[in-house]
Design brief:
The chain is an all-beta fold. It contains no helices and eleven strands. Strands 2, 4, 5, 6, 9, 10 and 11 form a seven-stranded mixed beta sheet that branches. The protein has a four-stranded antiparallel beta sheet with strand order 1-3-8-7, with no helix packed on it. It is globular and about 45 Å long. The protein starts with a strand and ends with a strand.
């Protein structure tokens, strides 16, 4: 059974950093496209970072220059390094994997940025 699990959320002060981890497990072949989404309180879920293949990356305007997505293919793991965090980054963060015609979502991890 293929599944995706996020970890690494927590509370941090403005200007701080966090690193989220997303581990995909199951019989996965190749290098699936992966993305990080977030859903702030009362708002819709949005795509903020993605990685296609080994190194093709993209970011939303709201996080470009502050967040970095990367992956370790040997571990089926994707990371989201978040620096210079702001209060508006507070959200539930989700990892999604697009593989073999299906989309797999994690359960989400809460990130709270507050002084």
């Amino acid at each position: 059974q293929v599944q995706v699990v996020e970890s690494g959320g927590g509370s941090v002060q403005p200007g701080g950093s966090l690193r989220l981890t997303c581990v995909a497990s199951g019989k996965i072949f190749g290098i699936p496209s992966m993305g990080w989404y977030r859903q702030p309180p009362g708002k819709q879920r949005e795509l903020i970072a993605w990685i296609i293949g080994s190194s093709g990356t993209g970011y939303s305007d709201s996080v470009r220059g502050r967040f970095t997505i990367s992956r370790d293919n040997a571990k089926n793991t994707v990371y989201l390094q978040m620096n210079s965090l702001k209060s508006e980054d507070t959200a539930v963060y989700y990892c999604a994997m697009n593989w073999n015609g299906n989309e797999y979502w994690g359960q989400g991890t809460q990130v709270t940025v507050s002084s």
